Amino acid sequence: MIGLVAIALFAQTSVSISVGSKAKDSVTTAHRDSVQMEREARRDSLRLRRMKSDSVNLARRLAKRIPLTPALLASSFRDSGARTLLNAARAARLEQDTALRAYDATAYERVSVGMGFKRIGRDRLLMRNERAARVIWTRGSPVLVQLLGTRTVMPMLEGAGDGDINTEGVPIPYFPGRESLWIGSGLAKADVSESEIIHPLANGAEAYYTYATGDSVSFQLPGGKTIQLRELVVRPRQPKWNVALGSLWFDIGSARLVRAVFRLAEPMDIWGIADQEADSSDDKPPRWVKAMISPLTAKVNAITIEYGLYEGRFWMPRVQALEGEAQAGFMHVPYKMEQSFKYASVNGSLPPIPQIAAIDTAQDSTSRAYRRAKRRDACKDTANSRSRVSTRYESSLMVIMQVPCDTVALAHSPELPKSIYDEGEQVFGTSERDALVAEALSLGAQPGFLPQKPVITYGLGLTRYNRVEGLSTGIAAQQSLGEGYTAHALARIGLADLSPNGELGLFRSNGRNTIGIDAYRRLSSANDFADPFSFSSSLSALLFGRDDGFYYRNVGVEITAARDDSASGTLRLFAEHDSDARKKTDFSLAKAFGGDGFNENIDATNGNIVGLAVERHASLGLDPHGLRTFGRVALEGAVGDFDYSRAMAEATVSHGLGRRLDGAITVGGGTSGGDVPVQRLWYLGGTQTVRGQRPGAEIGDAYWMTRAELGSSFVGARPVIFGDLGWAGDRSDWRNPGRPMSGVGVGASFMDGLVRFDVARGIYPEKKVRANLYVEARF
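and the corresponding structure tokens:
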């Protein structure tokens, strides 16, 4: 009986569970279907929104695209040969050479990024990545890329570059449809696209460019065949960031590109582009963000491409490089990409391409742990390498990447240069590239004359604080006019002195060299060793009541010439009136809490002068533990109400001292002649000369100094000890200076001296302890 009851209860329970389970399954299925329908609806909504956005963007691009009118076409060519050469090159660009069946090449790539607060300063390397790979291409098959070596350094962060091996984006020398000019998406597109850089060979490009034939060269191959090359000179009609100017060389017989040297006509104003691309005012960047990070620009100074002739008929890329720089507020970021290709075989016999079915194709996973697990599993099955498949260039090219399981050995590959800090002359031909750029992108190589909309800059980048002006800010305007000319204007005023300052000028630049003329009224600093108008100096003055500047006013005109690189030279011819500037404020945060006010300013010599100043900087070496030098030489002279001449030179040399220490020594000196005004004397003391002594502790028409520093080899954040000696006084006392100024201390250098904090104690004449936070230190 009990057994029958138990069976009945079990059966009832089973039925209940079964019915409940079915009901639960039904609810779960309905919920899953509801979620799926909601997801599909969301996808459809996003898809419709994306289609609407794409159609709006397409309409905007079509509206922006300049139509090629008969008048524009008629003015596009400076000679009939240019039209013939352009049409032939345009057709050849989109043709595939079916005779090229396969090649086996080694690809090398180096990407370098620097960082600094000043355009002129010691070269610092934020990041550099090098890699070498074997690239095997066979028509109709995926590209096989075998990674041979790769390494990354981030010296300013010391070790932050360690991580996953970068296997993506290894350069492919050639594939069907490849863009030969290395512009845009990597695929050769027939028509002009306003959303990208305007290709000078695209259909409709005559609306944006003018063309002329240039030089011609011919050479004879060993078999007796003669190759003739012809230059096509390309100039944009108006100065814009997305048009190129330069020289393109083509093989007359095949109309294939052989050499290209070009740059973008104007820097890219990123805030301006963001405003243009915004659908509404709500999509535009906030004004306070612009004020905090302004200017925000990027420019390409030079792109060089060299092709080599293989098998007597195939023009294949040999070397290509891009260099430029970005500016983000106070931060200056130079960058460079270099690629080189060596061919072991063209149309020869090649190894078979692996079968895709046996290769991991799960490239969509973004989980790092998943990728590592897949790599471990792959290396269990094969002793040498693991493989995966990916696609590039809008899925037009399938790539099989093979990476050795021993990734540690990749950093020591013999396929890479001996040191990652090498110049790379043998691999990338840097001196040959510099010669090409100097010839093709001279100061006369410019876009057409057509003034553009002015760019307005304001905010933090133009704000400063000192004891004369107090809080001073301004507004600047810059307008590109074409032909390389840019007009600029600056107006500023200080809240303490209420004395207006400004500049109005015109300069011409080709991205590497700049000449200009300015009319100005400025507050200038007499201290050659400090930068009192920088952000860090202004912050120090506002917070701690420390102002390293010695100020005077000058009103005049100047003609300047400068070279825009780390080995820069500047020349300044000026005519001006100098006068004194009085201290107008004592306010600082330290003063508000009982500290001392600012020191009095110098009493500058008033007068009219005409003068010439020349300065040269040089920075050599990138390895923070190797031999590096940084120095400058300056000459200046003037005649008028006071006649004077002055000259100075200084250099810093640093080197590793074993495995755990680095050291640096600085030496410098200067002298003068004639009746040197107060504002052109040498002012010693402070963070850049003798630490522990106040700026201007010694003043004279001659000086010398030396500094010694010793720090750990950990460049990212290293402790430092130092000692400084220096003297300034009358030049007749040069050989008998008496007891020099001195100071010692400890500090911390961050990001290879980009930011520096010191605590120094003066030894003679003052024995005070001074703490300083500043940027762009020598060590």
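(Above: one complete record from the training split.) The chain has ten helices and 32 strands.
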